[in-house]
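New here. Your pick:
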Amino acid sequence: MGAQDMKGHGLLGAVGVVAVVALGLVVTNPSEQEFVRYAFVTLRQELCPRLPDILKETSGGPVIPEFFNPYVQQSCSDILTAMRGTTETFLRRNTRVQNYFLFRIYTTELFGHKYRTLGIARQFITMPEK
């Protein structure tokens, strides 16, 4: 086998590897429903622990005594869980999806903030707000 044949086989092998990786990404591109589940869990984890501070910031001062904070946080989680269907519908309505076949970009607008999340290989990566 000559050097030319070896280069041809190497190129063909590289193209094959790229094709297999691309196919793997297409197959594992997370669905919109998977994103909504991820967004719901993330919202609950991010919002509820911060709710007392958010209430204080938006009202210009303390709204509830400090010792109630754990109850407020738990109630927030319980309410979101009880209203999961409504919360997921709200997330769907406020999210724009761009499907690039190998991955998706989800842009969610909540309470004046814009969150961008990359969905790739059955994983989600939420990018920092600009």
About this structure: The two ends are 55 Å apart (CA to CA). The chain has a mean pLDDT of 87. Helices lie at 3-27, 32-59, 69-82, 84-93. Residues 1-28+96-130 form one domain.
